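## tool: complex_structure
## caller: assistant
## args:
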Amino acid sequence: MSKKQKQQTVIVPYDENESKKEQVELMFNRIATRYDLLNDILSFGIENHWKKTLVRLIKPFKPKTILDIATGTGDLLILMSKKLAPDRIVGIDISAQMLEIAKQKVRKKLGDLAEKIELYRQDGENLQCQDEAFDLVTCAFGVRNFENLESGLKQIYRVTKTGGIAAILEFSKVKNKLFSRVYTFYFEKILPYLGGLIAKDFRAYKYLPESVKYFPEGQDFIDLVESLGFKSIRTKILTFGIATIYIFKKIQ
Ligand SMILES: C[S@@+](CC[C@H](N)C(=O)[O-])C[C@H]1O[C@@H](n2cnc3c(N)ncnc32)[C@H](O)[C@@H]1O
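## result:
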């Protein structure tokens, strides 16, 4: 399958005849209360480590205004709030249930700092934010879920200040052949089963590996983002390529 065909293949969680956006929203609303637990179990806690790495990489840019797109249950938002001490930090997500969990966690984990956090239900492909409003825009495991990847990336570009940073953490593909076999078996066979058992939604955890399979990664993803006016300044491959952090600067 060519790069173009891959990019045009739309993977949906439930029903191929319905819009991806509605299904993704429904799926995250369904699994919201078990999302954190499952993340910790299924990733053996590594996901938290990846988010910490992302924050470490963006800290030198000293962002004062931050937008976290597809913030989900708010882990990255909370981490950035603690470690980067911004003046303003906003999280948006399309799923009301994920945001509800995020609100509870922000209150519990941030104490007084919680006042600085703004959480809104919004579509990342149609942001209700002003142009060039943020020094830093982050998106962890979100862009893969966009219905139209390019329009989502264009929104990230629009709301990032010129000279500002966009940091994207997303699943990619394992490079080592031997590890790839073991991991693919786990990711495609065991993970959907465990996800189905714990979150009571087998399709949601079958959608995960399927959506990763068809999502552009590495240089293909960088080329796409750079075509919109960003410049890639750092790429960090995580845990044999299971995920990648991409850091871009808005140069024009
Ligand atoms: C895999 S979760 C990641 C959540 C969080 N960033 C994290 O790393 O744990 C994906 C999130 O993207 C959100 N999402 C999917 N499509 C979206 C869209 N078009 N606009 C905003 N959020 C979206 C989902 O509701 C979900 O909370």
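## assistant note: The beta strands are 65-69, 88-93, 117-121, 134-140, 160-171, 230-238, 243-250. Residues 3-9+27-250 form a domain with the Rossmann fold fold (CATH 3.40.50.150). Handing back to user.
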